[in-house]
Design a protein that fits this description.
The complex is a heterodimer. Chain A is mainly alpha-helical. Helices cover 71% and strands 0% of the residues of chain A. Chain A is globular and about 60 Å long. Helix content of chain B is 75%, strand content 0%. The chains are: A mainly alpha, B mainly alpha.
């Protein structure tokens, strides 16, 4: 997971980072954080100038500049230095697919105030596209910074497979548990069935210590009802 | 410059202490970061020029000034 994130940052194939396999998760995470800061903070004055430009030119022109002149990685860096209101206004003017293109390149830590002020439906729609594109790491990163209410709104447009695969890469297991608790019974059934079909139980395993008794019981009952095979340590 | 110094230079910070790489691997990582930074710089320059073409003519001078061109 860390190598995928690093490859995305470096703009290289994951194979090119084969030599980092076997490094500890903490070391790779620290490397990614330092690299993110290095790349996002480069040419900061120019980025700030670009962010200011969106206030000098009419809104439609700013949207045209963003979509026609900024590749996703650069757009993500500019978003990181934009004033919240200007960024929200611009986000509402660009095509949804553009937002979905830049979302995986964002550093969520830098855009949390913007995410909090974006129209909720815009986030749902962007989340749906990310789910359909299989951008599970990007979705997992957003789960770390979005409030529960927004996550709940988005769950309805994500497939069971998207939920299972995103859960696998969410860093904080308590968030995985929280999301499973938000799911209505029929979605929880779908998630258990999909996890069994894919053999992907790691997210549930990591989240287990954070489950409420009710969730633990519900998961066990669902597995029994469906007759799916659950790893022994999750019983 | 040693591989370790090259990596620190490219990263702009002390590399993570927990990273255990050979000299060659350290240089490989430093080179990848160097390439990413160069690509990013070139991308920025190209985007600035493209953006200026879209900005309405009367505002180009102001925008040039703001982005430091």
């Amino acid at each position: 997971m860390e190598l995928t994130r690093l490859a995305s940052l470096l703009g290289c194939a994951e194979d090119a980072l084969e030599f980092l396999e076997g490094q500890s998760h903490d070391a790779l995470k620290e490397l990614r954080d330092k690299l993110t800061d290095r790349l996002f903070d480069a040419n900061r004055d120019v980025l700030l100038g670009l962010a200011k430009t969106t206030k000098i030119v009419p809104g439609g022109v700013a949207a045209k500049i963003a979509t026609m002149a900024f590749p996703p990685q650069l757009a993500a860096r500019v978003a990181g230095v934009m004033e919240t209101d200007a960024a929200v206004s611009l986000a509402s003017r660009v095509p949804l697919t553009f937002l979905a293109d830049l979302a995986p390149k964002l550093d969520p830590r830098r855009v949390t105030p913007i995410l909090e002020k974006l129209p909720p439906q815009l986030l749902v729609d962007a989340g749906q596209i990310l789910g359909e594109r299989g951008e599970y790491i990007a979705m997992a990163d957003f789960v770390g910074v979005l409030p529960d209410a927004q996550i709940q709104r988005t769950l309805g447009v994500l497939s069971d497979e998207a939920l299972v695969r995103t859960g696998q890469v969410i860093e904080d297991p308590a968030r995985v548990a929280r999301i499973l608790e938000m799911l209505p019974h029929h979605r929880l059934q779908g998630v258990v069935e999909t996890a069994a079909k894919l053999g992907e139980w790691d997210a549930v395993r990591r989240a287990q210590p954070h489950f409420s008794d009710a969730t633990r019981t519900a998961l066990r009952a669902i597995a029994d009802d469906l007759g799916v095979e659950v790893p022994a340590d999750l019983r | 410059m040693s591989a370790a110094a090259s990596l620190a230079h490219q990263l702009g910070a002390k590399p993570p202490a927990g990273l255990t790489l050979t000299e060659d691997e350290t240089q490989q990582l430093a080179d990848l970061i160097k390439t990413a930074r160069a690509t990013q710089g070139a991308e920025l320059e190209a985007s600035l020029l493209k953006a200026l073409e879209i900005v309405p003519r009367p505002l180009r001078g102001t925008v040039r000034k703001v982005v430091g061109l």
